[in-house]
Design brief:
376 residues; alpha+beta; DNA Primase, Chain A; DNA primase DNAg catalytic core, N-terminal domain; Dna Topoisomerase Vi A Subunit, Chain: A, domain 2; 3 domains; 6-stranded mixed beta sheet; 5-stranded antiparallel beta sheet; 17 strands; 44% helix; globular
């Protein structure tokens, strides 16, 4: 199924290229053009030029160029129809489609699964905000220092202690519920929700579309502590970073991303005034994650157990630094502290900011730690 050619041209004509690119690149006006650091290769002197009148961009460093559709395909990893649909949604344009085909059916199925996850985000969020049984969850979030604004910004939710509350609400076919990572058919041949009695952290792709969940038990609840959406057609944890949709604009301006371990760490950094943190979703940092972050920044600040990361993946970090021309630093947090805990109290937030500001190169950090251990 293709997209009507007139609608494609309308998307081109009505898209504000500067506004789109400004979501990823800090642009400054220079005469009739806009310039900034190229998001596609590492550079210190701006060589990326945007001509808003012609609707065209060009990098004089790496020679990449194109229009809004090309840019979104490159930066988000979309195929052509996905880029058109993304830009059309942003511009409020309703697209018309031509004859059916396998590719069109796949896109429609993907849209349906994404819509189901979006409905689930709303369902869990409403339950957290209004349901009497969500009282303990609201209490837990208050102990974390999360006010209403934080809960709404991150669309936090509550999965009730019910076997099929979400399934009944969504009214999806069992195979679609399972394909979206929201439920499954149990051994009794009954549809069952994937998450029960858990605080829900929706996971969004870089463009802000919800694709999955991280779910935390309440203190004293059934293990495991965290449970994540399983791999699906729309969610791959090795390719998704929690918080990137919120962090990317500030990250582009600052030139760096802070890489954490968990959802509450990301929120902690935002609460502390450092809204450029992301977290892996229950997996180790992968090369795909690094490639994704490289689209936006040239510097990564690790804010997790860098000793453990160093032992497990030191060679990979060094390889990635060279391969992707990206600088890897380490924020040396106080022993036993985590960003979420430090951000909870106003008095300790400066220590969190200081750790990022004074982050040291990964290799130097590892050498210092090894030498310190040998002196013990």
């Amino acid at each position: 199924m293709g997209i009507n050619e007139d609608d494609i041209q309308r998307v081109r004509d009505e898209t504000d290229l500067v506004a789109v690119i400004s979501q990823y690149v800090a642009l400054k006006r220079s005469g009739r053009r806009w310039v900034g650091l190229c998001p596609f290769h590492g550079e210190k002197t701006p060589s990326f030029s945007v001509n808003s009148e012609l609707g065209f961009y060009h990098c004089f460093g790496c020679q990449r160029s194109g229009d809004a559709i090309t840019f979104i395909r490159e930066i988000e990893g979309f195929d052509f129809p996905e880029a058109i649909e993304w830009l059309a949604g942003r511009a409020g344009i309703t697209l018309r489609y031509t004859d059916d085909a396998d590719g069109g059916r796949r896109r429609l199925r993907r849209k349906k699964l994404l819509a189901a996850v979006a409905e689930a985000v709303d369902f869990y969020h409403r339950r957290l905000m209004t349901a009497p049984d969500a009282g303990p969850a609201r209490g837990y979030l208050r102990t974390r220092g999360y006010g209403r604004e934080t809960v709404e910004t991150f669309r936090l939710g509550w999965a009730p202690d019910d076997w099929d509350a979400l399934a009944r609400s969504l009214k999806l076919a069992p195979d679609e519920l399972e394909s979206a990572g929201l439920g499954f058919v149990n051994r009794r041949n009954r549809v069952q929700d994937s998450f029960r009695a858990r605080v829900m952290f929706p996971i969004f792709d870089p463009s802000g579309t919800p694709v999955g969940f991280g779910a935390r038990q309440l203190p004293g609840g059934d293990p495991p502590k965290y449970k994540n959406t399983s791999e699906t057609e729309i969610y791959s944890k090795s390719r998704i970073l929690y918080g990137l949709n919120w962090a990317k604009k500030n990250a582009v301006a600052a030139g760096e991303l802070i890489v954490c371990e968990g959802y509450t760490d990301v929120i902690g950094y935002f609460e502390a005034g450092l809204p450029r943190a992301v977290a892996t979703c229950g997996t180790a940092l992968t090369e795909e994650h690094v490639k994704l972050m490289k689209r936006f920044v040239n510097r990564l600040v690790l804010s997790f157990d860098a000793d453990g990361a160093g032992r497990a993946a030191a060679d990979r970090f060094y390889e990635w630094e060279k391969k992707y021309e990206i600088e890897v630093l380490v924020a040396d947090l106080p022993e036993g502290a985590d960003p979420g805990e430090l951000a909870r109290d106003e008095s300790t937030r400066p220590r969190l900011r200081e750790a990022v500001e004074k982050a040291v190169p990964f290799l130097r950090y590892r050498i210092d730690r090894v030498m310190a251990a040998e002196r013990l």
